[in-house]
Write a structure and sequence with these properties.
The protein is an alpha+beta fold. It is built from one helix and ten strands; from the N terminus they run αββββββββββ.
């Protein structure tokens, strides 16, 4: 009788472990491809995706001014190039800005978006292995405001990472 119960418990543990690992893999969205629903004026959100040109980050809102800020860290390599997309310059608190660190391993940014779309594109050196994102909206880490890849799926957290050059599936 003891062996029967032990077998049941072991089977239950194995099933739970397999289910948990399947869920963890399923939660990380594929970053490849421009989001199908990419357009200005959506409810507060980040769009993040990768394609043959490199990485892309966009922000959008419906009407109210929203403050997007964060950090992107490169592992094993450096940031090669950053190009702004629809960023407003200017001076003061409400100007959009990004800065690459002196060692070229980090991009820090602050983008203020209101009823439009802002963002930037960036490329990484050949020796880069991973890229890590920490994204905030109005000072809060909100994964539900981050949409990744062609299918616009949310990451499990506002802190997430990918291979520097993810393979298309």
């Amino acid at each position: 009788m003891f062996d029967l119960w032990r077998g049941v418990v072991l089977a239950a543990c194995f099933t739970a472990a397999v289910s948990a690992s399947s869920v963890a893999v399923a939660q990380k969205p594929n970053p490849n491809g421009q989001p199908a629903d990419l357009q200005p004026g959506k409810v507060v959100r980040y769009y993040v995706w990768y394609d043959e040109a490199g990485w892309h980050l966009r922000t959008t809102t419906v009407k109210r001014l929203q403050d997007f800020d964060g950090r992107i860290r490169v592992v094993g390599g450096t940031v090669e190039n950053v190009i702004g997309a629809q960023l407003e310059g200017g001076q003061g608190e409400r100007s959009d800005r990004w800065k690459v660190s002196d060692n070229k391993r980090n991009i820090a940014f602050r983008i203020n978006t209101q009823g439009a779309m802002d963002g930037f594109d960036f490329t990484l050196s050949e020796d880069a292995t991973d890229v890590e994102f920490t994204l905030k909206v109005n000072g809060e880490e909100r994964a539900d405001h981050i949409f990744i890849g062609k299918n616009s799926k949310n990451p499990p957290s506002a802190n997430f990472s990918y291979r520097a050059k993810p393979r298309a599936n």
